[in-house]
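Quick question, first post here. What does this chain look like in 3D?
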Amino acid sequence: MASSSKATIDTVDIVVIAVYFVLVLAVGIWSMCRSNRSNVSGYFLAGKDIVWWPVGASLFASNIGSGSFIGLAGTGAASGIAVAAYELSGLFTLILLAWIFVPVYITSGVVTTPEYLQKRHGGKRLRVYLSFLNLILCIFTKISVLVQRSISAKNLTHAKGGSVLAAYCKFLPLFLLILPGMISRVLFTEEVACATRETCLEACGNPAGCTNIAYPKLVVELMPPGLKGVMLAAMMAALMSSLTSVFNSSSTIFTMDLWARLRPRASERELMIVGRVFVLVLVGLSIAWIPVLQASQSGQLFDYIQSVTGYFAPPILMVYLLSIFWEGFNEQGAFWGLMAGFLTGVIRMGLDFGYGTPACGDPDPRPPVLARVHFLHFTVLLFVLVGAVMVAVSLVTRRSAGTKRDLAGLTWWSRWNVGAGTSADASGKDSPGRTDGDDNPTFTMDVSGSAAHLQDNGKDRETLGEQELELSIHSDADTDKGKQSRPGVARWLLHAGTWFCGLSGSSTAPSSGGDDPRAVVGPESIRETRTWRRVADMNALLIAVLGIFVWGFFA
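> Answer (accepted):
Ran it through. Tokens below.
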């Protein structure tokens, strides 16, 4: 049934959307006033003081955006309820994240997951490569870095509680997104289920297909005035939440893993500015990629996201699994396995984008590796291939694996063994005896940005001498004096601008230990009370049982 009249947005809908933006602006200003955004911990990890329910809401909201309202509902319209099984698998991922990965990340005292690989294996090339790859995935797929949300939790119990809440919420997309997408296909067959390139081009402007308009079409055509505005505001809220999570995680990776390595003397103020500017660059790159996205996977956004993720994610999962569970896994095996997986994934993605997906009824000119091997099957094959390469190389080069002392707090089996002087202490230095085959010294940076160190064979030397430090102190004093000598209006405008950007305060003074997310690491950081641990465990078990039941029921 096609719509007989053109849908419009009423005045009351515009008012509702305007009220939503006013509320968002008010909450943003309130958050700016109460939170500490002037240091690295406050901006990138929200002070590492988030309780369980905001963590859970953020985990779920990071997954609900354009990829859900547009892509997931569109795939439901195109292929039916089967995509729900793919979505429900995410609840098991959330449980594994909180119960397996997060405890190790907490005891290692890292801010980003690429930083964990550097502390686990030593050297720098793994961290740089993973940082670069995560940024590429963010641009191509808007993939959320969920670990960033979890390690910002107040403690391990709150991280588990957040994952439990997000896992319960993973049941909602089946009823709120997939089924409405299927309904839209039935109601608006000529538009949502257009059969030819010409009709699709006329219906939505995309000759590859129009299933992505299934959910917005349903909202705009059927909902009454007022409620239509509420639903559009909800879609905007979901999109903004997922984007802010992605942009924050991406700017953290770029700033702490890449920029801080290029400029080891960078102050906190510089790191904050770089993180914000990178968000603007990321927005531009994401917009520029839209035409490629529209032509891929028959115009289905959800399939596009999953396919590109499947080309690059299996090596990342394998390297973290082996790093956490196998103490004999070394840097050489990790690096060459990642390189093999990256090369294989790039070849597959290049062929996919180069040939495209033929329209329904057209001959398929693609080679058999594309036409006969589904991207999900390719993902499994790539996972096995990368694992074999990593294990083989690690066994051949086993002599370079870290010792028990080096791995304290960095694996599942040694997470309770962190003590003074081990590799996971609060300084964040690399462990001695583990290198990447490069004799060059490794630069590491304290998360506070207050001091830069040069590490060479396990010995640290301050790169700022007494004269340089004295010069820096005088420079800051002169800067403050210059600020005080400015006219009143100019000084007020400068103060307002620095406050708005979260740059107020000293740019070189070290952060207090309470603000440093690395300040508390080791066994104490993952201890839980018996009662709340049991509550979290029982809920995780209940979620797993419900997930298996829903899988079986709809199968």
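The longest strand covers residues 452-456.
The longest helix spans residues 227-262.
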